[in-house]
Amino acid sequence: MLDVGDAAPEVSAQNQHGETVTPGFEKPTVVYFYPKDFTGGCTIEANEFEDALPEFRDADIDVYGVSMDDVETHADFAEEEGLSFDLLADTDGEVAAAFGLDTSEGYTSRLTFVLYGGEVVATYDPELADPSGHAREVLEETREAYV
Questions:
Q1: In this model, does residue 130 exceed pLDDT 90?
Q2: Which of 101, 102, 126, 135 pairs as cysteine with 48 (C-beta 3.0–4.6 A)?
Q3: Thioredoxin domain: which residues (predicted)?
Q4: Residue 111 lies in a domain
């Protein structure tokens, strides 16, 4: 798994609208990996990122959610939950692999990376705890350190 100080990987994937997205990672960027759309913890986490999205945007921090679900499933999930940030469809696991994550079970663990200036500046492992409050923690710490 990538760690603090590692170079940001070059990745591209389609979002829920079928558009190819290639994050640059020069400005503060949150990339959170989650196991699956429409599951309990993943839905909580997505909704909390959406609720805090105006604050992320005010601080000029990009947010991307990534799972191995396909574009259509992401589109349905985004519509049902009212999500307006990009959900990247990593069906082949290439994005996860670029971050050093295991995809052998057909999904990734819940892990979050903050990238800035072309490198990893923070990592979070909300898998070990309730995802409630995770987005707020990432926002506050990223805004304090890099904005």
A1: no
A2: 135
A3: 2-144
A4: yes
